Amino acid sequence: MIASVMKRLHMIRAKLVHDPYLKHSLWRDVAHETFKCYGYRKAGIKNSMRVDHIDGFFKVGIEGRVIYWPDTADVARVVDMYFEVFNQGNNHYFDIPEMVVKTGDVVMDCGTCEGYFTRKALESGAGKVYCIEPGTAIVRCLYKTFESEIQGNRVSIHPCLIGDENKSVEFYDNFSDPTIGQISRKSEAGRHNGYIKNVQMVTVDEFCLTNTIDKVDFIKVDIEGGEVGLVVGAEKTIKRHRPNLAIAVYHAAENANLIVDFIEKLSVGYEIRVKGIVDFAGVPRPVMVHCYHAK
């Protein structure tokens, strides 16, 4: 409790002293973070969750939505991810009212993880969702979760990593928490119950070219710190298709400013909303950047 209060006070102070990392953040975000109360909402999700252990998977059902999760991982993490995607009042929410997935939209889900955003996009009528996820165990689960949608060509799974170059990279995969996979730091592999593998990195522009994608309406991004590189590697796609962009930026304190600056320089007519604040590793920073077109 004390730690939580101190973090909230730290955010208020950072905004008062005009911390450069929060230069695009609004006082309404400070107020939200100061008075937020997520606990009871997450408790409701946890109470409604039903878990079965089937053939090396956890089959997780929440409010009629079923996903599969690695049985080597902590199934309790699913509650947080469900909350982030389906509860509009949280600071990590992707499809804010100004930019929602519409019927027939083509969606790129970069950092698909458990697949809840893909599920929500399909419920909203998306015509096709490209799931881009490098984690071995999670990819196996996604094939199970979206088996019927893959057969119907509404979903395709791509076990690669999106960035600013087209090359092979070493990727750190974690058994117990697949959500923290990232381009590897070798010193961590033995210490954190994980392993390193080679993964192909591609840019959004190359991904669209290779997969003959001639329409992109919505790009969701949550890739553990690689978000700036993804946006840089998506320049042609952004200029050509002007998709809505929902980008998690909290992994590095400077990411929000770097992405806002890059998008503004493209001059493609986006409205930009920087949303949420989190005190992460003792440094307050924004949570999301949303880029959309005024109605």
UniProtKB/TrEMBL annotation:
InterPro entries, per the entry: FkbM_mtfrase, SAM-dependent_MTase, SAM-dependent_MTases_sf
GO biological process, alphabetically ordered: methylation
Molecular function terms from GO: methyltransferase activity
Keywords of this entry: Methyltransferase, Transferase
Domain of life assignment: Bacteria
Xref: Gene3D superfamilies: Vaccinia Virus protein VP39
SUPFAM superfamilies per the UniProt record, alphabetical: S-adenosyl-L-methionine-dependent methyltransferases
Pfam families recorded: Methyltransf_21
Domain Methyltransferase FkbM as annotated: residue spans: 109-263
Record protein name field: FkbM family methyltransferase
